[in-house]
Amino acid sequence: MMPRRTLLAALGASPALTLPGLHGARAQAPFRVALDWALQGNHSLFTLAEERGLFRDQGLAVKIDRGFGSGDTVVKVASGAYEMGYAEISAAVKFNAENPTRRVVCIYPVLDRTAAAVITTRRSGIASLKDLPGHSLGAPEGEASRVLFPPFARAAGIDASRIQWSNMAANLRDTMLAQGKVDAVTGFLFTTHFNLLALNIAESDIVSWTYAENGLDLYGSGLLVRAEWLRQNQQQADGAVRAVIGGLKGLLADPAAAMASVKKREPLFDVALEQRRWAMTRDRCILTDTVREHGTGHLDPARAETLLRANAEAYGLKEVPTVDSLFTDRCLPPAADRRLV
User: Fold this and answer.
1) What is the pTM of this model?
2) DSSP state string for 159-192
3) Alpha-carbon span 161 to 32, nearest angstrom
4) Which of 80, 111, 236, 269 has the fewest CB atoms within 10 Å, i.e. the most exposed one?
5) What strands lie across the sheet with 184-188, from one edge to the other?
């Protein structure tokens, strides 16, 4: 056998580089991740995974960037600007229908249940979903929770024809509700709830109903990659999923450390508030009965089809996409490695 120096010289390599099989180091592939929004407590599973070297251990030199909405994240992943995105899975249905050659797929549904919800305050007089008809609802036009409201209304037995919608920018939605300019809004529960607290609405005055708990049980946010990229980079996709699951386990075990990993990136990050946001996300969207039984990321074809049918109805698609056009479970590790509790 050649001495190590001779081997390195023969390969034209610098002694500073580690070759496969020498001390076990792995080559690092650039791996860009786009989140769905500005860093919140829920995103700490990504920053903790990076901080603890979980992506590096999978051979990935990760770069994590904030997002500007799930729809924008889908476009960035489909364009190749990012290898992976974290976004509401529903946001990909219409995009895939209109861009079949740039289709994206979900390789890991992180949120087993969507956080889409109807949120109001007690002064609106809305005490149940059946009270919504005759009231005004606000949301950005085209935003996922609003687009999915018609199939949700049908599932929940709400007369959607008697609801008046107000269009508004996403950054004004919760302020408009706090000021009483609309009676209720649709949006992500863990975003609007804590925005209302920041606007001095007492927590006891916030009333909400999630879609998933009231008739429309859909997957929420997950990891999305371009289908063509996945065909050529299965190993990277598998490694990214393992790293994110490891980050989620770390977040569950030590929320304080996870929040600290975000605080290092964002000095204005409110740790106390974000820990509460994370707890709501954990209890309502992640640690569901399904996850407790099967582990995180479990793919139920029937629930996946429900998501596709709801979006096809909401967007007026001529055909309901097939489950395997948007979902795959081949990047998931064995169920034993996906147990969270």
Assistant:
1) 0.89
2) -GGG-EEEE--HHHHHHHHHTTSSSEEEEEHHHH
3) 43
4) 80
5) 164-167, 136-139, 184-188, 116-121, 206-210
| Mean pLDDT, contiguous 10-residue spans, the chain (341 residues) | 41 36 64 96 98 98 95 96 97 96 98 97 96 96 90 95 94 96 96 95 97 96 98 98 98 98 96 96 97 98 97 94 98 97 88
The secondary structure of the chain in percent helix, strand, coil, rounded to multiples of 5, reads 50, 15, 35
Q: Which two tokens stand for residue 72?
A: 């924008």
DSSP 281-292: HIIIIIS-HHHH
CB-CB contact of 186 with 273 (8 Å)? no
For residue 290 the two structure tokens come to 């399904």
DSSP three-state, residue 50:
helix
